Amino acid sequence: MSGAVNTYREKVVSLVQPVLESQGIELVDVDCVKGQSRWTVRIYIDKEGGITLDDCAMVSGEVGDLLDVHEIPPGPYNLEVSSPGLDRPLVKDRDFMKYQGHTVKVRVAEKVEGRKHFTGKLVEFVDNGVEKNLLVDVEGQLYSIPLSMVLEANLQYEF
What was the pLDDT predicted at 105? Predict the structure, then answer.
């Protein structure tokens, strides 16, 4: 992620998170993407019982006003607000703790035990104060994946 995009993402998170939390809505993730002529700001939200279209519309109005007042990102932008979907991204430590026992799909930056892609049960999220690891059971084989190496992690919907 480029520096400017990451900076805008962090600013959006810091502006939006307190507003959403006060309404019982969880900020799952934020994407800021610079296009040729305008930005796209994607905000993924969730709450107990799921997100409704009315929730998305309400958040879109409030967040749009906040972004406009603070001119983040600079210039024209499109704002998209949605639920994270069935393949919810796992971003924060609390996501990994909450979804222990669920099937996840993990992609890492460098090979771990010869692999860069893992799909299996998230057995445990380990935080020993020095290092954070995901323990993932892939077809009976247990992998310890350093969180610092994770590029992307998502819930994997089970049919």
Answer: 97
